[in-house]
Amino acid sequence: MMNESSKFFALILATLVALTACAAAPPPWDASTNAMQQAFPDGEFIAQRGRGATRAVAEADATAAIARFLNSEVVSRIAVLEQGWEQNGEAGARTEIEAEIFVQAEMQLFGVRHVPDAWFDRTHREWNTVAYINRAEAWQIYGPRFRQQAQIFATLFEAAEAETDPFRRALRYTAAQDFARSADFQAAQSMGQLLHPTAMDAEFTQAREMLAVLPQRAGNARMNAPVFIDVPLDFESLVQGAFSRRFAALGFPVTNDRNSAAAVCHVTVEEGRQERQLGIFYFPQVRAVISSPAGTLFAFSAEGGQQAAVTPDVAKRRAYQALADAVLDGFSLRTDF
């Protein structure tokens, strides 16, 4: 028979064995194949596992897993948006690096949490944990941020709808397009849809409808705003041709009938011609002012650098070609109004 001392030590040993067994047992979120989904339903949480030699390392690994998941989702959603722009002749601008920076910044706001019952897997000798974001809580922080962006976009779109001047209307639609294509707006829209699709669908139906019709409205507005290009001083139509190509690339037709034009692009060339012992030198400059019945809408200027040659015609051709190249490289239409 066991004496009292033996019974005491046996009880202590049994207690230690029981505690060890409890410590080694996985928590509810890791108890079975479906345990993770049951503990963190996808409709309520964004959750990812993490493992590591220490609890801190495991938590960092879980947080990094959420970042990778969000980044991947945001990039893929933006890719879908950009495909829509490309189908309408517009180029996307978002990169994976920019998306990663955006996701990291937003995660600081959401406040990623970790489960309190991280556990040590003795079989694999590593800590296991879960990092998670509560979708409802994250939306309370994020909703107002995208709401503000959606309002800016709606204001731009509505201003274009209300504009009566054809060329200015086209510019206003382009401004709305530029904002909708911007990295911040696309990432914000994608993150909002990822965090809380139900709330996004409920709150931003109007903005989504505007986005759907914007490419066609903008394209039609540009096609209905022909431009007359007035270049009193040119050489072999080099400057005229450069502006014509840029307007065409921007979606604006060029007309030879000044009276039917929605806007006039008046181009002034300063040749900066100098005769020196070594030859003929040009320091050319070009300035374009676009106006419509609504007034002056836009101004552009560029320089062609120093151009020289012994033969006058060669020097002049180089000067005007330099101006044409500067127009092709730099001319666009400001849409920040």
Break the fold down into its secondary structure elements and pairings.
Elements: H1 4-24, H2 35-39, E1 45-52, H3 55-87, H4 96-110, E2 113-114, E3 119-121, E4 126-134, H5 135-162, H6 166-181, H7 183-195, H8 197-203, H9 205-223, E5 227-230, H10 238-249, E6 263-270, E7 273-276, E8 279-282, E9 285-292, E10 295-303, E11 307-309, H11 312-330
Parallel strand pairs: 5-6
Antiparallel strand pairs: 1-4, 2-4, 3-4, 6-9, 7-8, 8-11, 9-10
Helix pairs in contact: 3-4, 3-7, 4-7, 5-6, 5-7, 5-9, 6-9, 7-8, 10-11
In brief:
Helices cover 56% and strands 18% of the residues.
Largest sheet: 4 strands, antiparallel
Whole-number count of domains: 3
- N-to-C terminal Cα separation, in Å? 96 Å
| Percent helix range | 55-70%
Instruction: State the total count of DSSP E strands.
Output: 11
Secondary-structure-derived class = alpha+beta
Can you count the helices? 11
Overall morphology: elongated
Mean pLDDT reading: 86
Tell me the radius of gyration.
32 Å
Portion in strands:
15-25%
Query: What pattern of helices and strands is seen along the backbone?
Result: HHEHHEEEHHHHHEHEEEEEEH
